[in-house]
Amino acid sequence: MLKILDRYIIRKFLSTFFFMLGVIMLLAMVFDVAERLSEFIDNQAPLRAIIFDYYFNFLLYYGNTFSSMIVFISVIWFTAKMAQEAEIIPMLNSGRPFIRILRPYMIAATILMLLSLILNHFVLPRANRVRLDFEESFYRDRLLVENYHAEFPGNELIHYASYNSQENIINDFVIEKYDDHSRLVHFLKARTATVAHGSSNWHLTDVFERLVSYDDTIAFKDQLINQKIRLVEEHKKDTILPYRIEDMAIRDNIAEAMTFSELKQFIKKEKDKGNRNVPTFEIELYQRTSYPFATYVLTLIGVSVSSRKKRGGIGVNIAIGLLFVFIYIFAMKVTTVAATTVGFPPIAAVWLPNFIFGILAIFMYRIAPK
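^ thats the sequence. predicted structure below, dont judge the formating
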């Protein structure tokens, strides 16, 4: 049963959070409009699509992404104000332990954490799909991929030198197909390759093919004895291949538009292909849970830092809070870079900052009443 104290603090917590969230997101939207307006006009983006397909989902995505940080600033703000107005001291002098004052903070943090979890796992993947489709249509920068290498099902290796999404052309396209004995059975090289999005009908130019068949009934010491080789050269070739351009040229943020199950399957497929961006996709998967739980850690630190009245007023508490925010963001960035460049486990990269700052939060909570 919630007491008057609980309702008072929860109301202050949530109202301050949503007020700050609204102000920050409004500023973010204004800056984004100023940056993108000319591109929207040049590409004749419909007003309805700009508002509902882009900015509505823009606010959902970035509001949820920075919600933990906004929670922290909100807690610092209203708790420091309560401390400056001598509201915290009577609560402690009434005989209530500090953990009793902390309870409504954790109730409000749980509400926001559950909201963020629901958004991350059920709402945002579909909202991001709409937003990214809009970006692709009206202002996304062209996609450039260089030195692509991947292994596809059926023992097929795909290589190409470069791909430009604006021209939709693959340069130096190579296919190598091997049999179950790891013997090359088909080699194809084309100077350029083009395919429409969503299609498997490929158009190749300046094609060289080498087709190899093996007669395994012949006993041999030299493998060349049972080989039959056929060479084919064509200026143009139209063919159907069992993959699409979307399988070979993807943006790093494509994972944002996938549900949990879709992302798990996508990661498995990209691992089999040897995609070097797999850690980035795994970080996206794990941080959908780790970021909401950061709400608890940052709330505990915020209360511990700002519950004491300081000579410099609220500004000192806010300055200390911002310092913690910068250190926390820096820690997340360091572990993320370590996961994507030096092989640090992605699951550790997203949870380690929470663990380290969780220990710090417990320490600060223990000394706060003193």
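The radius of gyration is 28 Å.
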